[in-house]
Fold these 2 entries.
Entry 1:
Amino acid sequence: MQRKLAITLGVIMLALIALIVAIYQLVKNNSEEYNKIVLSQRQASYDSRTIPFRRGDIMDRNGTVLATSQKVYNLIIDPRVIHSGEGDRYVEPTIQALVSFFGYDENELRTLLKEKADKSYVKYKKELSYDEKSGFETYMTDKNKAYSSSGDKSRIRGIWFEDEYKRMYPYGSLACNIIGFSSADGSTGTGGVEQYYNDTLMGVNGREYGYLDSDTNLQSVLKEPSDGETIVTTINTNIQMSLEKYLNEWQTQDVGSKVAAAIVMDPNNGEVLAMGSTNQFDLNNPRELDTSIYTDSYLLELGRKEAVGVYKREHPDDEPITVDQVSKYYTNDEIISYGKQVAWNQMWRNVAISDTYEPGSTAKSITLAAALEEHAITPSTTFNCEGFIALSDGIHTWRIRCHNHDGDGVIDAETGLMRSCNVYLMNTAFALGAENFVKYQHIFGFGEKTGIDLPAEADTSSLVYSPDNLGRTTLATNSFGQNYNVTMVQMAAAYCSIVNGGNYYKPHVVKQILNANGTVVQDVKPEILRTTCSKSTSDFLREALYQTVEGGTGTKAKIQGYKVGGKTGTAEKIPRSAKNYLVSFIGFAPVEDPQLVVYVIVDTPNLVGEAQATASFAIFIERKIMNDALQFLNIAPSSETDPEDNINAKFAQNPEGISNDTMGEQVTTAGDEGETSEGETAESETDEDGNVITPTSAPIITDEFYEEGGEELGFNLPDAVPGDEDTGDTAEGETETENQE
Amino acid sequence: MSKKKKIKHFFDYSLLISVFFITGLGLIVMYSASGYSAQNSMNDAMYFLKRQAAFALVGIAVMLGVSRIDYHIYGKFSFPLFAIAMGFQVATAAIGVASHGSARWLSVGGIRFQPAEIVKVCVIIQLATLITHHGLKMNEWKKIMITAAWGMLPAVFIAKSNLSTGMIVAGITFFMVWVSCKKVLAFAAAGGFAMFIYVFAYPAAKLLQRLNILQEYQLTRIFAWKDPSSYADETFQTLQGLYAIGSGGIFGKGLGESVQKFLMPEAQNDMIFTIICEELGLFGAVSIILIYAFIIYRLYDDARNARDLLGSMLVIGIMCHVALQVILNIAVATNTIPNTGVTLPFISYGGTSLVILMGEIGIALSVSRQIRLET
C-alpha cells in the first residue's frame, strides 16, 4: 500500500510537471502573438462610441412643430467579422438574412463584401426605423439559435446598427425659406433658422468610453449627449399657409410671374409672421430639382456659365475661358453638377431678404415722411402737377412724367400719395434736399441691413445713393422709388415703423429659445433700433394710406369690415428697354391700430410689355393674405364683414376654385388688353402709379431714357381719379363682387 | 500512564500554514480578477473579495474545529452522512436553483450551497470506512467492485448535471480503491485506457464525423478543444485564457495588471489560473503549483504515517480530491483537456467549495494530530 501510495503521489507530481511544461510551451511559443491579440482587444474595449445629440426642434409661434429630429438607425456591415469564420461560414447566412429580411440586392452585397473585405465599418443603409432595426435583431437572434440547435455552424455575423437622428419637416415645403434645412448629421444648417441659429439648435455629442482608473480597472463611462435647444419662431403657420397658397394660386392658376413673394409682419414688434415666395422646395428633399424646369439642357447651360467662373477661380493667371470652351476643360457630368449647384441656390434663395429691386411707388410714403419730419412740406403744402417735370443740367433736358399726362393739378400731400403723383413727390424731394433725403433713406433702413435673424440678407449699402452723387434727376426718380434697390424686409420694416408711430423694430423670426426640456432659456424681446418719424407724421401717413385704399390707387385692397391702408408700387426693371415690371402692394390693417403689415411683390408677370405693370396682381394676393390673417389673429372688425370673406365659409364652400377662376378670367382679360392695344394697357395700368421711367442708352440713370419712356408711355387716363379707376377696373370690380356673393 | 504522557503528538503545521498561505494569496488574486466585473455588476469592486473573505473565515473556523474532532467518529456515521449528501443531491436535481446553466444549487434556510461538494467529502468518508471495514478482503474482486460501486454510482448520478464533479468523484474512487488493494494490472489497464481515450479522442471524433455516425455539434467540445480559434464562439473563455497565459510571459504583467480580466467572463471562477499566469507569469504559476505540490506532499506524508487505515484512507481521499481539482483546473486553463468547469482549490471564488476543502484539511489535520512521533 505504501508503494501504491508513492506511485499515486508520483503520478500526481508528474501531472503537475506536465502542466508546468504545458504552460511553459504556451508562454514560449505564443507570448508575442498573444500579446498583440490582447493589446488589440484592449484597444477595442477602449474604443469610444459617439452618441449623437438631438438637434433642437423648430416650432411656429403656437408650438406647431415645423422641424424635428427623429431617431433612426444605420445598418453597419463589418465585412471583416463576416469573413472571419472558417470556411466563410458567416458569409452565406448573413447575406441571406439581409436579402430575405430587408430585400437588399444579393449581388450588390456580395460585391461589397468582396471589395471591402478588409474593412470593419461599412454604412450600408441609412435611416432605418426602430421597427426595422429591432425586427432584424430578433430575426438574427432566432436564426442563430436555430443554426446552433441544428448543429449548423453557420451564423449571422457582422451586422449592427448605429443610432442617428434624421431631420424631419412635417410640413414639407412650408416656410422653407424661414426654416432652412440641416445636414443629415444635424451639424450644419443651410438657409433660414437652421443656418442662422445652427449653434443654438446643435447639441454636443455624447460619448461612451473606457479608461483605467487608479486601481487599473477599466471603467466604462457614459457621457450623455446634450441635446440642442428648441427654437420658437414668430411664424404663424396658418398665415404662412395662406400666404403660400395664394402665391401658388397666382403662380399656377393665374397669370403667374418670374417670381412672387410676400411677407407678413407684426408692426408692433417687428415679428415676421409669414414670409415666402413662389420659389419653394421640399425641406425633406432639398436637393430634388423640378425636372420640368431644370431640364438637363438648362442645367448644362447654368453649369457652363458657372464653370467659366470656376475656371477663373482655379486658374487666376490663365486666360479666362468662354462658355463655348467649357466642354474642353470640364466633363459633362461636372458641368451638370455645377449647373445643379446653381439651380439649388436659385431654388433655396430667400427672395424676401436676399433679392434687391427698385421698390417703385411704395417708397413714396418714406419720401413724404422724411419731408414732413424735416418740415420741408406740411400736409397742406400743395404743388401743381402738369403731368411732368422738366429738368436740365445745362446740356440735356429731361421730362419726367406723371402717369397722368394731363397733370393732377394743384394737390396736397394726401392727394399726392392717393394718386401716387410722381410730380408731387419730386417736388417734395427737391424741397427736402438730397442730403436729408439720403439721411432718411438710412433712417428708414434703406442701404442698411435690417439685422433680421436669417442668413444671406442682401447688402444694399452700395445700391442707394450717397448725398454727394445724388444728382437732381436721380433725386427726382428716387423720390418715387426708382433707381435704388431695397429688399422686401427693408420695405416691410420701414412701413411697420411708419404705421406704428415711428418705432423701427428689428425684424426677427425667432421669439423664444427653449432648452431640451421645454424650459424657456431666452425670450427674444422686440428691439427698437431707432425712431423713424414722429407720431404726427405716422398719423398723417396712416390716414393718407387709408385714403389711398379707400379712394386712391389701392381700392382693390379694401376688405369689408376692416379699415385697410396701403400703397401700390410699380417699378420698371432694368434694363428699361425690356419693359419688365415689378408690381407690389404693401398693406396694413386695421388703420386705427395696425396689427398686420402685408407686403407682396410680383416680379415680371408672365405678360408682354406694359401689361405687366398691373399693381392689382399684387393687391389681389395681398388682400387675400390680409383677409385670412386678420381672421386668424381674431382681430375684431370695425364694422360688418362680408360673409364671403370668412375663411371658415370659404373652406366650407370651397370657393377657392371659384375665386381663382374669376380671378384668372379677370387677369387674363387685362393681359389680353395689354397685348391687343397699348392704349388699353395703359388703361389697365391706371389703377397703378404710372411708371414713366424707361432707360435708353446708359444702363442705369440717364435722363434720356426718362424722356423716351415718357414718350413711349402714353398715359391717357388720369392715375388717381377714383372715378376713372373704377371705370378702368370695372371688369375686375364686378368679378370681385361676384366672388363675394 | 506516565508512559503515555510522554508520547508526543504530531500536528501538521506545515500543511496548516500552506493552506493559510494559499488561501490568502487566493484572496489577493481573486480580488484582482473580480474587481472590475464586481464594480460593473454590483457597483462594489470588493463585492467578491468580501464574500470570499467571509467564506475563508468560516472555512478556517471549520478547519480548526474539525481538526480537534477525533476522525474515528466519521467511521461510525459514514453511512448517514453519505445518505444525507445523496439526499441533497437528489433534491437538487428536483428543486435546485439554476445558476450558470444547470441546477447545482440548493437553498436551505437561506444558505445556498452546492450539494455536489458535500457528496465529494461524504464519498471519501464512506469509501475510507468501507475499505477499513473490509481490510485485507479488499484484495477480492467482489469487494473491490462493491466498494468501487459506492463511489461510482454517485459519480454517474452527479455527472448527469455536473460532469466535472462526477469525474472528480470517480477519480477519487479510482485512486482510493487502487491504493487499498494489491491488484495492479487492472488499474494499470484502466489508466492506460483513459490515456488512450485522451490521445485518440480527437482522431476518433474526426473519423466518426466523416463516417456520419455523429454530427458535428455532438463533437463540438472535442473539435473546439484541438482547434479553439476556429470555434471562437464556443471557446471564447478558453481562447481568452490562452491569450492571458501567453501574454503573461515569464514574470507576468504584475499583480493587478491583467487586461484579460476585463474580457474574461467570470474571471474569478474557473479561469482564475489564467489571470494568475497573466499577472504573475510562468514564475508565479510554477510557484502556485509548487505550493499545491507541497500541500499534496504533506497530505501524502500524513497518509503514510497515519495511525490507522481509516486515517490513512481519509487523507488519501482528501489528497486525491485536492490533486485532481488542481490538475483538472490547470489542464483546462491550458487547454490540455476539453473545457469543463473545475474550481481551483482555495483560490477560485465559491463558498461551498472553500468551506468543504477547509473542512477536509481539518480532517487531515485531525489525522495528523494522532500520529505518534517516535522519540
Entry 2:
Amino acid sequence: MPVTPPDTLQAEALGARLPPLLVAAERVASTVAQGVHGRRRVGQGDSFWQFRHFVQGDAVARVDWRQSAKSGRIGPGGWFIRETEWEAAQTVSLWRDGSASMRWRSRAVPIDKQQRAELLLLALSSLLLRGGERVMLMQPDARPVGHRAGLERIAAELPRLSDEQGLPPQVRLPRHGTVVLFSDFFSPPEQIRGLLGRFAAVPVTGHLMQILDPAEAVLPYQGRIRFRGVEKDGDTLIPRVESVRDAYGQRLQAQQEEIARLCATVGFGFTIHHTDQPPETALLALYAALAPR
Amino acid sequence: MIFAAPWVLLGLIGLPILWWLLRVTPPAPRSEDFPAIRFLLGLNATEETPARTPWWLMALRLTAAALVIVALARPVLDAGSALTGSGPVLLVMDNGWASASDWVRRKEAAAALLDRAERAGRKAALLMTAADGNGGRPAVSAEMPVADLRARLAGLQPQPWPPDRAAAAAAIKAWGQKPGTSIIYVPDGLTDGPDFAAFAQALTDAGAVTEVCCDAVPPPLLLPPTPEADRLIARLAQAPRATPAAAVVLAQSGDGRTLARTTINVPAGATIASGAISLPPELRNRLARLVLEGPPNAGSVVLLDERWRRRPVGLLAGDLSSAETPFAGALYFVRRALDPYAELRAGDAATLLKRDLSVLVLADRPLPAGPEREALTDWVRKGGLLIRFAGPRTAEEAGNDTDTLLPVRLLAGDRQLGGAMSWSQPAGLAPFPTISPFEGMPVPEEVRVTRQVLAEPTADLAAHTWASLADGTPLVTETPLGAGRVVLFHVTANADWSNLPLSGLFVDMLRRLVSLSAGVASTEDAATLAPAQTLDGFGLLGDPPPAATGLRGDAFGKTPVSPAHPPGLYGPENGRRALNLSTVLPVPELSPPIPGATLETMQGAAKERALGPPLVALAILLLVADMVISLALRGLLRARIAAAVAALLLLAHPALALDQGGNPAIDTRLAYIVSGDSQVDGIARSGLEGLSEYVNRRTAATLFKPDAVQPGQNDLSVYPLLYWPITASAQPPTAEQVAALNDYMSRGGIILIDTRNSGSGAGFNPGADEALKRATRGLIIPPLAPLTIDHVLARSFYLLTDFPGRFTGDAVWAQRDQDRANDSVSPVIIGGNDWGAAWAINADGINPYAVMPGGARQRTLAYRFGVNLVMYALTGNYKGDQVHVPAILQRLGQ
C-alpha cells in the first residue's frame, strides 16, 4: 500500500524534531545500555517484577487478562496480577559549561569541547530516562522530566542553559539528588570548593567530568607564539613554547589533583575526558560511577 | 641617464617614514587562541625586550622600496635629446633596395626615436617611401599611439625597387601641415631619382626634421655583366666615395654554390668599376646569378638568364643528304666535337636563322648570291659568328669569285700536298700567331694537311690569319663583319683533306671559337612573360608579390623595376628571362642631408635603454628574499616548505636533460655517435628527433627519443641505426671503439657516416674527407659502390632517385650489391649530404637549417631518404625482392 502524503509529512516532521545530536546521543547511550543491562532483561518490560495470584481486594483493573487466560483456570482463582518493581525515581541534575572556553577546539580534533559535553549530557539523559530516573537541567525554572519523550525536551532546552563564569547557576536542587557537571574546570580551585560546599549543604552527591581538548592536555605548539585567552583573560607571548611545556603540564596536573581532592572530600566523583577519545568510554565510566553501590 | 617621470622620485621622501614604521613594528609572532591560558600566564617572563626588526632586514626593505620608486620614475640610459615640437610625429622610412643591407639597424634606430615620442606622449604616423608589393603608392598611415606603430614597424620589409620620391612628397603634402609636427626621417642615403629635392622640400615644409644618417654607406649596385669571349665582365656602380673600396663578386650556380669569385677595386671617386670572371664555358653555362658579397639586398644580385650562357650552334652542310654519315659526313666530326658543350641545331638556312643562333657552321657550302647569302650576311652583321669549312665545292666556286661571305679571297681550285704525283709532303701546323684566339694551344705533331684551298696573297693576309701551315699558307682565316665575324677553315670538316678533325685540337679550336661568339637573347618577341620567381628586398628569390604582372618579351632591358614588374625571373621554365634592378637604374647618387634637419647617427639613436624593468625585477627579488627571511624569523619556514620552494626554483631552470632517457632495449630508438663538437652533436640530436617524428608520422614504426652514444662505452647492439657526423677535428678511434664498431657492423648494425661537405656544403666542413679517413681507421669497411636507384635503399619505403640531405649532388656510397654477406645489407652508408641538418627540427617544430639549393621538395626527399634508411635498418633486404620484379615479370611473360 503506497504511503499517503499526510503520512509522509508526519514522518518528516517527527524526524525533524530529532536533531542530529539527539540521534548521536541515543546511539552512544544504546551501546552503553546494552553493555550494562542487556543480558539481564527478560520478559516484556523493564518494570515487570512478578505475577501473583489474584486475591480478594485487588482491583479488577490490575488483572493481567492475557496471563490469566494462559493459565486456563476459571474465575478469580486463575487470575494473575501483574506486579511491577517498586521504583523510587531519583532526580539527576545535569549541567554543561557553555562558556567561550568550551567552544574551542584545536586543529587535531573535529569537535569542540562543548559539542562533546552536550553529547555526553544527552546520552546520559537517555540512559537515565530509560532506567526510569528523572532528569533535569540545572536551570532556575527547570522541571524534571521522567519519561522517554523527555529527552527531546532536554535537548530543546539545552541551548538555553546558563552559567556563571564557567560554574553552574545557583538553583534549588532536590535533596538527595545527584548532580553531574560537564566543564573544563579551568576556574580557580577556590570557586570550585565553594560550589562543592554548596552542593554538600543541600545535600546532593554527584560527579564532575572535566572535558579537555588534547591540545590543552599536552600543549603541542612550537616556536614563538602569542597565546590569546578566549574569555578576556589576557594574552601572553611565549618565545619558545617547547621550553614551557613541562611547566604547563605541571600546572594543569596540579589543578586536576586539587579538584579531585576537593571532590573526594564531599563524596563527588571526578573523571577526565579528552575530546579525541570515544564518548562511549566516558559515558560508561560515568554510568558506572552513578550506579547505586 | 634621464628620468621619463621624474616627479615620481618625490616618493623617495617617504622612505624615512617607512623606515620609522618598519623600525617600531617588530615582526608579529604567530598567534593562537588558547582557553587554558591561565596556566600559561606568567610562564617565561624573561622575554621582555621588545623584538626589533634587524637593521639589515630593514635596509633590505628600504632598498626594495627605493628601487621600486626609481623604477617607476622610468630611468632611461643613454637617452637622446627629446624631439622638437609637440604635435604628431611622422616617421618617414626609405624602404627601397638600398636600405635592405642594414634594415634591422634602421628599424632599431626608428624605434628608438619613436620611444622618445612615446615618452612625450605624442602620436605617430608612418610613411614608407617605396611602393608596397600590392602596388599601393606611398601613403601616410593614420596617426596612432606609438605602441601600435611599433608593432607595424616590426612587420615592415624593404622592397626590391627604389623609393618613389615624387609619390612620397605628394603623400606628405596630402597629410598636411599640422602644428608642432616632428618628422623622423630614416633615409637610404641615395637620391633615387631627380625628385629628391621636392621630397626634401616637402619634409622641411611639414615640420621639424630629425634625420638618422651619416653612419651608413649606401650599398653598391651590381650591374648586369658584359659577356666577352671567354669571360664575363662584372660591373658595379656606386655613389662616388672619397676612399677606394673593394667589392667581391660571387658567381653562383642555380643551386647556390659559388663557382668563381672576383674582386672589383673601386678607385676613390669612381662610380663604375668592373672585374673579369673567367670560367670555362661549360661552367659558365651553369651560372645563374652574380652576387655581391656582404649584406644582401636586391641591388647586390644580378640574375643571369639565357642571354649570358646560351650559345646555340647551327650546322649546315653543302650536301645535306650525306652530312651526318659516320666518319665520312661533312658535319660528323663537328657535331661530335661540339655536342657536349653547345646546343646544336640542324636544318636549312632559313629554318636555322628563324631562331636565335650564336654560331653557324657551314661545311663546304658555297654561298652564291641570293636570299640565303643576304640573310646570312645580315645575321653576321648583327653579331653572328659564321664558321665555314672549305671543300671541293668551295674550291670549285672559288674561281668564280661570287662568294663574298669569306674572310679572304680564295684562289681557284685547291692545292694538294703529297700524293703520288707530287714532290711535296703533307704539311704540319705552325704555332698559332699571337693575334689568334688559339694562341697557346699545343700543336700536335701528327696533324697533317693534304689538301687545302689557298687564299689570295694580300698585304693584310697575315692579320686575318689565325692558324697557318708550317709553310706559311693560312689554314684558318677570319674577318670581322659588322658586329659579327666570319671564320674560314681552309680544309674540310671531315678527314678527307686533313686529319685535323681527328685530333683533339679540333675540339679545342671549335670550343674556343664558340665561346668567342656573343650570346643570344632568347625571345625578343612581344609575347608577355609571366613572373615566375621574384627577388624580395633582401635579394632572395620567392613567389611574386600580388601586384606583379607579366612583361612583354621585348620590354626587358627597357622596363624599370616597379611593384608591377619586380626584379626576378619571368617566363616559362625553359625560357626564363631575367629582369634586373640595375639594368635601367641610373648610377646611385648620394643624397644631401635634409636642409635644417637635426642629424642623429644610427648608432646613437639605437643605444638608449630603459632601466625600469630590471630595477623592478631586482626589487621583486629583494622582496622575495625579505619574505623568506621573515618567515624564517617567525619560525614558519619549515624544512618541508623550504624544500618545496627550492624545488619550485629549480623547476624554473631548464631541466638538465639526461642523455639516456629510458631503456633503449625496450623502445626502438635511433642514436648518434658523439663527436665532441657540441654544435654538431646538437644538430645530430635534433636531426634524429626530427627524423623519428617523421617516421612515427608516416610509417607504422614507432621510434622514441634518440640517444647519444659513445662506442666502447654504450651498448650499441640495441640501436638499429647509428648516425655519425664527421667533424674536421675527428680523432682516430681507440682500440675499444674500433672493436665496438666492428662488432656492431658485423652483427647487422648500420652506420650512416656523414662528412657534411658535399655539393654546396664544400666550404662548411673543410677537411672532413681527411677526417673521415682518420676517424674510420681500423674499421672493417666493405668495398663500396655508389647508391643507385636499383639499391634497396631507393625503394625500401619511398621510391627515390636521389638521396639529398641539406646538400645534394654527390654520390652516396654503400656496400657493393654483389657482396652477399649479411643478406646484402650494407653495414655502412657514407655520404656528405649533411642529413642531420636537413632532418633537424627545433622546439617549435621548425626546420632551423635551410637546405641547399633549397625548396620544400628537397626537404621532403631528405626525410624520405631517412625513412628509407630506417626501414632499411629495421627490415633489411625485405624490399630487395622487388628489385627482381621486372626480371620475374619478364620471365613470366615469355
